[in-house]
Amino acid sequence: MSENNGTSFLKSLLNAWSWLFLILILGFFELYAQMETGNTFLFRVYTLQSIAVAASQILLLALGLTLVIVAGHIDLSIAFTTGFSAVVMALVIRFFGPEGGWLIVILALGVGLLAAIVVGLINGWLVAFINVPSFIGTLGTYGIARGVALIVAGGATVSIRSDEAREIGNGIILGFPIPVLIAAAVAIVFSYLLTHTKFGVHTYALGANRASVERAGVDVKKHLVILFVLSALTAGIGGLIYTGRFSAGAANAGEPILLYAVAAVFIGGASLTGGQGTVVGTVIGAIIIAVIQFGLVFSGLPPYWQFVAVGLVIIVAVVVDQSRDRLTGVSS
Amino acid sequence: MSENNGTSFLKSLLNAWSWLFLILILGFFELYAQMETGNTFLFRVYTLQSIAVAASQILLLALGLTLVIVAGHIDLSIAFTTGFSAVVMALVIRFFGPEGGWLIVILALGVGLLAAIVVGLINGWLVAFINVPSFIGTLGTYGIARGVALIVAGGATVSIRSDEAREIGNGIILGFPIPVLIAAAVAIVFSYLLTHTKFGVHTYALGANRASVERAGVDVKKHLVILFVLSALTAGIGGLIYTGRFSAGAANAGEPILLYAVAAVFIGGASLTGGQGTVVGTVIGAIIIAVIQFGLVFSGLPPYWQFVAVGLVIIVAVVVDQSRDRLTGVSS
Amino acid sequence: MTPLLSAKGLKKRFGGNEAVKDVTFDVNEGECVVLAGDNGAGKSTVIKMISGVYTPTEGEVHFDGGRLTGKSAEAIRTAGIETIYQDLALADNLDPGLNLYLGREKTRRILGLPFLAREEMRRDAVNVLQSLGIVVPDPTAPVREMSGGQRQAIAIARAIHWQAKLVIMDEPTAALGVPEQREVMALIERMKSKGVGIILISHNLPDIFAAADRIIVLARGVVAGERRPSETNDEEIVRMMMGATL
Amino acid sequence: MTPLLSAKGLKKRFGGNEAVKDVTFDVNEGECVVLAGDNGAGKSTVIKMISGVYTPTEGEVHFDGGRLTGKSAEAIRTAGIETIYQDLALADNLDPGLNLYLGREKTRRILGLPFLAREEMRRDAVNVLQSLGIVVPDPTAPVREMSGGQRQAIAIARAIHWQAKLVIMDEPTAALGVPEQREVMALIERMKSKGVGIILISHNLPDIFAAADRIIVLARGVVAGERRPSETNDEEIVRMMMGATL
Amino acid sequence: QEDITITLVPGLTTDAFYITMNRGAQAAAEALGITVDFQGAEEFDPVLQTPVLDAVIARQPDAILIAPTDSVQMIEPLRRAHDAGIPVITVDTFIGDGNYQDGAGDGDFPISYIASDNIAGGRMAARFMAEQIGGEGKVYVSNVRPGISTTDQREEGFKAEMAENYPDVEVLETQYNENDASLAASQFQAVLARNPDIAGVFGANLFSALGAGNGVEGAQKSEDVTVIAFDAPKSIVDNISSGVVDAAIAQHPAEIGYYGVVTAYAVLTGQSVPTSIGTGFTVIDADNVNDEDIAKFIYSE
Ligand SMILES: Nc1ncnc2c1ncn2[C@@H]1O[C@H](COP(=O)(O)OP(=O)(O)OP(=O)(O)O)[C@@H](O)[C@H]1O
Ligand SMILES: Nc1ncnc2c1ncn2[C@@H]1O[C@H](COP(=O)(O)OP(=O)(O)OP(=O)(O)O)[C@@H](O)[C@H]1O
Ligand SMILES: O[C@@H]1[C@@H](O)[C@H](O)OC[C@H]1O
Ligand SMILES: [Mg+2]
Ligand SMILES: [Mg+2]
What we know:
- Chain A contains 14 helices and four strands.
- With about 325 residues, chain A is mostly helical.
- In chain A, strands 1-4 form a two-stranded antiparallel ribbon.
- Chain E has nine helices and 13 strands.
- Chain E has helices spanning about 15-30, 45-60, 75-85, 120-130, 150-165, 180-195, 205-220, 235-240, 255-270, and strands at about 5-10, 35-40, 65, 90, 110-115, 135-145, 170, 175, 200-205, 225-230, 245-250, 275-280, 280-285.
- In chain E, strands 6, 7, 8, 9, 10, 11 and 13 form a seven-stranded mixed β-sheet that branches. In chain E, strands 2-1-3-4-5-12 form a six-stranded parallel β-sheet, sandwiched between helices.
- In chain E, helix 4 packs across helix 5 (about 150-165) and helix 6 (about 180-195) packs across helix 7 (about 205-220).
- Classes of the chains: A mainly alpha (about 325), C alpha/beta (about 250), E alpha/beta (about 300).
- Chains in contact: A-B, A-C, A-D, A-E, B-C, B-D, B-E, C-D.
- Chains A and B meet through helix 6, helix 12 and helix 14 of A and helix 6, helix 12 and helix 14 of B.
- Bound molecules: adenosine-5'-triphosphate (ATP) (2 copies), beta-D-ribopyranose (RIP) and magnesium ion (2 copies).
- One magnesium ion binds near residues 44, 86 and 170 of chain D.
- Chains A, B: InterPro entries: ABC_transp_permease (IPR001851).
């Protein structure tokens, strides 16, 4: 109880603002849909499922990235770690043929994740041991993962036929698409990691002041390696889901969503300089992005105006967030 | 003289390392060319011109960005500020028809730059006055500039017929392509700004510790607005050159170059947290990128392997830079 | 005589916490007013409301005939108030010369264009620091690489280098060596004799008694009392500091 | 009796500048050794070579029978050395409780999973700070929002909260109020009586004389001399500090 | 039926080809008195196209015309439209094997496929190139990036035609330019530096061709090097007039859009329609670029 007085209670209340903003735009689209088409926007299983699946594909890149950004670093390579692991998974399935069954699919998932972990280890090693700034180090592995994915795939995509893989990407359990369940599980684990474990505290401290953790006797190099492996791992899971959803491993699977993933993390409250950001914030950020993408198409706004609208909404999302600080006089 | 003793002399000597690395890769390609094809790689006006033009297109996005990054911020919107100003210039020329002559082209250049400045002002206002984190604010204007460029263009590209515009993009003066001369002029001005003026000192101080400049009585908000306007302005110049080179203003002109521009700034020694980086470094960074892009094609490496090689070279460029610190024992 | 500076009813609230309230005091020309008080009493908060870092939640500050409250840090500095902050507020990536002149850099024209006079500023920094008894081994190095006391001396140098009418010093000698502390105390005397007003924050009782014309004691954000050094002693001051806490 | 800690021939070079050289000294159990010296003399550099922040350019450190040099900061802390750094080294975005326990956080198992015991750590922090005479208005706030003295107290709390065999304190009282300074001095006495070895860096002569069993004076990076407080006086110590400079 | 609404989902919204296709679709819509919406993603990519498609399905249009961004990967997302009872017609690109309604293969459910065959277009470019360079010499393909099915197919057709019918033409490694004309220009110059005898470049889309043309011009090789462009927006046509580009393979996107809408209308009004409609190509070069009847094949931008 004692910590729930004063600022802290106020804070948790105010952290609800991004939720509020999300509810606001949902309300807006619902109203619009009712007036314009007479149909509901929100209260359809199909709409909710579609938005949730789109958000979860963004989220799987954004979750690991959140940890890396909180620690004051960045990971660009996830753009192609996703593709690399998607391609590797597809190759394993193709190698054993469509009759492989669950055993082979599970093997393929494992090998796909291993591929991602290798990228993460290289990133961690570069940043922690060779002191390469993470922006440049992971831009390097971005190119490497891309090239290797294309080389092993022997082209851009490896298509497969596997009902089991398809089930992972498109199955629905109790109304919840499997990709959404997986993303939710990863989000819960990462939220736990970041808020309730030593590892999480050290990640925040690292972002604020590397010396503080180093001098406190934390093995910062090891910590960094783990961070980049986690980031690669979630991106890799994103790749596996991709392969399942689309029955093809594509080397480019993650590239077009990188920017959205980074945006989700920043909308969620992270900062370039590190030390800030939460998993819950990133989840809301990813959902906001998925909702406006869906909602704008749904509303029938012409495509070029949608670019403008997405830009505006992103800015407004953060301005709303800022004004809460101003209202409560936290800044000077 | 007094400041050229001790560390400082050593420093300036060591800053030559990135030059050295550049010379190294040039040497490598030259050697390769001599052995493999019997031709020279480097000692052809034509090769040099071609690399320089490619570098200058990257550089025009990277120069303004360098200032912004030194100040601890980022500007993603340049990806489409370039396209916006390219499109606007093309529209003005098209409006007056192919017989407009220099007067119209100059008018078009002016209006194109004005368009860019508007984007810069919005960025500056968002970051300085509304306290929107620059990553999100400029991601928002990225979308807006993109949408507006496409809307005003009424499509993706605006083609023009203007010998004057074509001259700006493709002319050569005393062996120097005009785009290269323009980029060089901007680089010299920005290098002067960053190293020899109050504005430059405040930019570095801002990146290290915003409070230090604020409390020293510098108008930080105004400073930020100027920074973002400068960044938009150089990106806009890049757009004008693009329109000249290709006789078409394309809304997407800058988008594929953004990542290379950011990479050039970081290869040049800047850091995510601000307070570091130089114009000279960025110039070398951009040249390194242009050289490897050219050199790898020249060397006949298969395309997928080129992705891998670019990644490796980027990493090695920075590792070389790091090892100099290690050799001189600057780090603990 | 109207006071050089007068603060009236200053209050500052951070979120739910009122760090400072009802703080009213004057500073006259050539006078050194010491703000004393326990840790967290609100001393730094008070001086930041004067120097323009914080906007007071309530109250206002007048200086040299004008109203300061609401003005920018820039305007307040131009009006003639220099401040040494407790956290120093240095630009760690710049050398001592540039830190000394930050915001007021010296330039030299070459072909009509202004160029920073880096060496000159550096030389000046070395001289000012020397007058405080501080030698930095490499004046071209960024201040990040300097020792705690060297850094503090640079912050002091920055404030005293300008012809200010009022100098605010938040624990200026905390990191300084013995001889340097003495230099700063002597400096305060010299500035007073030139008519400069001084607000000094210090936890060092001998220094407080040596420098102060008046001592204002803050306790838990409010003024617990005001004394002239000749009217009081160490014990009373310490008791006043604790006063509100008991 | 073998000393608890012995430093032999320590040297540290930064770029072209030799900040410290030939520094040799011992610390015994229950002994307080003061490192005194002017600003920039090399005191902080010496203790960072002991605590593992810097690797010495030359020389080595032995502690409690083992060699420290080359070990990580982590290993050195585990071996039983706690350090209060001059720059505090706090994680500004965390609350006092997490800063107190940084690297050694308390957890509690719920359904077999470890969860940080935030409230418990916070409560402990409030208590340790209270024992130093410090009250923070909101212990859930990040330490970024604390006053200079509150921050320093958190750094002190962090070092004394653990059962260390040697505590290194780099100007621990610089930002503290008068009563808090007294608390820290008393604390040093209590630790000594429990057999803890202490290295104290301070510019405050009365404190130096009160706490020290031996005073080692550094001047311009080298040991200018070593004295027991009973054998010397303020003036001699100050002269030794300046010694090499003259 | 006044209130028929059809949505056209292009491969990407910012491309002259699809903008022109939309123009044709709107012309048909006007003629038929129905509504055609245009909704798509910013890049030619299945991950981006899928959420757009999902939202389009939520609006429940009467039919969907789509240029699927991948033949395999878009099967599942399009099945959702089919399952929702919305007829699907693919334009420009196809899913599965492209043969619909024959009971074979995964992606069999679309009603019809209306396009100019990109592989055939690539072959046409190769034939024209071979003629121009006299049946021998070195050429290469300047392409966007691996993984875009349309441009990949043009490259495939180009290479296949050369391999089968022009043994003396050597096709060098493809160069990928990320849709950056500036990079495409520098790549041409690098290829030239290595192969001073380079005879031709096939630019597989607008920016690849614009860039290659600029590179050729910069090297003052316009006389010796043949540049063939795929697609014919105005900027390419201007470059043909000025001699920088030698020829463009123009698809007929407006026709595709027009027939697409008409086919959908036919389906919705209960007529039977063919499962595939091929639209042609027109080669634009210096000889015919100023002809009256060529103008209609120039894309809007
Ligand atoms: N930015 C801030 N946000 C929230 N609380 C703050 C902030 N700055 C100061 N405080 C609180 O206000 C109170 C007064 O702080 P202030 O820094 O003025 O103390 P001080 O008298 O200068 O103490 P010290 O002697 O330790 O420097 C403290 O309890 C502190 O925690
Ligand atoms: N990281 C560094 N890089 C370069 N020079 C350094 C570095 N750290 C310290 N120095 C230099 O080494 C010398 C000794 O510094 P040190 O911090 O040890 O002094 P100190 O005795 O602790 O002084 P103070 O009492 O002011 O804290 C100083 O001249 C300082 O400028
Ligand atoms: O220009 C191309 C267009 O013609 C094709 O159909 O889709 C991909 C585009 O890049
Ligand atoms: Mg204070
Ligand atoms: Mg020190």
